[in-house]
Structure formats: C-alpha cells, structure tokens
Amino acid sequence: MPYVIIALSFGISGGIVGRYKGSSFLLWFLISALLPFLGLLAALLYRFEGSEPRRMCPRCGRAVMLHDSICTHCGEELYFPGGEPRALQGG
User: Fold this and answer.
1) DSSP string, 34-88
2) Alpha-carbon span 13 to 43, nearest angstrom
3) By Cβ atoms counted within 10 A, which residue in 40, 47, 72, 80 is the most buried?
4) Mind listing the pLDDT tens digit for each residue in 25-76?
C-alpha cells in the first residue's frame, strides 16, 4: 500500500512537470508512476517543447515545429523558402 501512494504521488508530480514543459501529462504520469524517482527526475530534466523554433503554416496560420514537413493541423505540405528559413521562437 505505501508503494501505491508513493507511485501515485510521483506520477502526479511527474505529469504536472511534463505538462508544464509542453509534453503529455499522461505519458509523464505513467513514466513517473512506474519508475518513481527516475521518472520524476527525467521529467525535470526534459527540455521545454516551447523552446524549439517554429514557423507559420501558410494555409491555416498555425505555428508548427521548424523541422515539420507537414502541418499537423491542416495537413498542408510545408517547404523551406529559398535561403535561410526564418523561425518563430516560442509557442
């Protein structure tokens, strides 16, 4: 019983940290609940999703990751313009 309480506590904590960093709550909840100390540590050390460069989709206007070749919202195929691509910082 004490292990279940510890696992749930670490799972909720890891899920909150993961969601704060822009990732899935459920994914980090499961990782942190199955591996209580290591899962929470991994969630704390995981990078922020919002810190990756982004660009605008010309069709729907949604900000997508710079390396995406297809818009995840509307399915538009994305190409880099000639030269160096301009990136939007943040999310």
Assistant:
1) HSHHHHHHHHHHSPPGGGS-EEE-TTT--EEETT-SB-TTT--B--PPSSSPP-B
2) 9
3) 40
4) 999 999 999 999 999 999 999 887 766 777 888 889 888 887 788 888 898 8
